Predict the 3D structure of the following.
Amino acid sequence: MKRRDFNTLLLSGLAVGATGLPNPWNDGMAYAQTEGGGLTALLTPEPPMLVLPLNQQQPTIVAGSKIYEGLLNFDFDLNPLPQLAASWEVSDDGLTYTFHLQRNVKWHDGEPFTAEDVVFSCQVMLMELHPRARGNFERCESITALDEHTVQFVLREPFAPFLKAFEAGSAPISPKHIYEGTDYANNPANDHPIGTGPFMFSEWVRGSHIHLVANPDYYIEGQPGLTEIYFRIVPDAASRSVAMESGEAQMSCWNDVEMFDVERLASLPHLTKTSQGYEFFSPLLWYEPNLRKEPFNDLRFRKAMMHLLDKSFIVERIMFGQAKAAVGPLCSTTPFFEPELPVYDTDVDQAKALLDEMGLTPDANGTRVSINFLVVPAGEMWTRLAEYFRQAMAAAGIEVTLVSTDMAGWGQAVSNWDFDMTNNLLYQNADPALGVARSYISTNIRQGVLFTNTEGYENPEVDRLFAEAAVAIDPAERQRLYSEVQQILVAELPVLWMAEQQYPTLYDSRLTDVIVTGTGVNGNFATARYA
Amino acid sequence: MSAVKSLVSKLTGIAFAILVIATINFVLVHSAPGDPALVIAGQSGATDAEFIEQIRRDYGLDQPWFVQYTSYLTKVVTLDLGYSVRQRADVSDLILERLGPTLLLTLSAFGLSLIGGVFFGALAGLRQGTWKDLAISLAALILYATPVFWFGLMLVLVFSINLEWFPAFGYANIRAASFTPWQYALDVARHLVLPAVTLAAIYMAVYTRLMRASLIEVSHEDHVKTARAKGLTEGRILRGHMLRNAAGPVITFAGLQAGALIGGAVVVETVFSWPGLGRLTFDSVTARDYPVLLGLFLVMSILVIAINLLTDLIHRLVDPRIGAR
């Protein structure tokens, strides 16, 4: 029995029998709960810093997005909503974007927020620090402040998903008066981040918690609805479940709770579960072959692997229902998703026939070919995905050896193409041009850089379709191009798409209006309050 | 004169040991695959070549290895532990911040296991063959065979979830800033109970068994038989003639275990969210935060050496013959 299985057993079984013994310390659980409208949320792992422009790791964004804001936010269908920009216009040629900023916005140190801060952030600071923002803003011919409350971005050529670049995690707006002309990384203000958001930094006890307090001068009347937020750092997954169960923490998100434990916690009366709020990211999970190597360079082998894998098994047994079977390179929550695509049924005989056709016949032990699988060192689910892969491949005589490493070793091996097979999971970032094309276009085969076309897929037609779709302004035209590219990719299987991960957010049932946008827990929580 | 000489030779030995340890640390840390840039990229979900170059520059990884090595050694000699690019803080500050909780945890566990082990071991040894001996020996064996994280989780289940006596994790209440010093101390003490007991358990089991065996051996020695023949009470024989002799091996072993205690703290600190050096080490290894890691190794090796010196000292106190040689 695995440690995690064992924990579930313990936590589900033994915890039920709470005794009626009096508590000699007379406080027990209640002491941890926040009185008067505060929220204690889990945060895993501890972020290295909270300065969003400098660091975009997941926990940094979860905590930092309450302090920093972007110009726009996005609803569950990924339509733009106002944040620091109250309204905006896009010219008909798709080249000029004009944003009218909110009035009466102040930085947390009391200085007024103006168009100059936006220009400085997008043109100077983020260009130097933020890889994703750099990719978007380097398309700009100019970024200018028309007046104190108006900013204009002019593009060199149209870029259809440009509005998506203004989400808080993608382009956090930073104070010019603090950072201009300084060494950003060593600016003393980094210890006390200053943003425009509904919550202000108060204290960070490393290894324990981060404390944010409500911003009394927030520019929307009546917000934020919470008085404070504590982010608690609890490194052990079993302890995190205990914290949610006991009410010591009132919110978990992303990977905080192990998949197998989600439904048990969700069924508790004091907790509510939602899988909304991850639409902007739409993570897609796949098995990734290294197409530079035999036998993966043969389409028949990739098809055989696809026939051996059972997506519903992965969704139900490995991801415990916190996912949806994938049909192709786009998530169903991403714009331009094409539902009508070829399907590879789970069929061992078909797989064997394909392998026979390749000349990979079984030897005396029944083994046709031996391959290595690099296990993603990111938790229980990934280990099981690898173990399942080994088992599924064995059905047709493909012998799989699992190779273990840690996160740094995995990054090194995958980015330098030193692997046979592995798993990977990429965010789609709200548009195929931002989060999908990067995995398949040949210009993005870049050694040493993670989350590029690491499998090494090359198809000029695919390159062309992605390139045209990125600059097309008409949504119908984009849909046509993306539908075509999805057809080609599913036919050629550069990677084996398995599941759209649907992360669960668990929160105290008394909370309302917490997950209100497509960025979910990466939103600013201004509307969250206790009913 | 010879005392000074022995002190000098001891200190030279220590200095040499630290230098060798520092070198081994450097080699080990840098021969692991992957580097901080890849970890940060992996956790951010996006990256580009420029970003990776920038991080490698920040860490000095673009320099040849001997430049990195000599600059590291110079820093070690001048007691400068460097700067963590990842955490944006001086390594010495990071370590000092975590040193307190770790010392509190490991020293509590060390004391608890030693006192408990000697007590139960003596009890079992004196009552050899009785049900008490059997019960203690069995309990010690079970504790010894129990994985630390499991034992910790069981304690959480019973004492935090069911009985609600102690908090399940953490070092202090998150609202501790508003506490009086007395309330704060009490709060930390409550948080300390479960992790300290968890960490102490396995060592207590070891010391119990060691003490029992050692006491039984001593009880057959001539001087104890003589004492008994003189008609001394069992209590006086135990205190005057057996305990000190029997404690020798336990102390030796406890000294050796000091290093392992710090290692064991990694697991316990993780299970109980205890903000100590063990967790800092684990986080730094996975993040390839080289400066922090090297600083930690250095501090830990110094700690182990210090504990060994302390063990020597305790030995001399318990057994005066050692100093007289």
User: Anything to note?
Assistant: The mean pLDDT of chain B is 83.
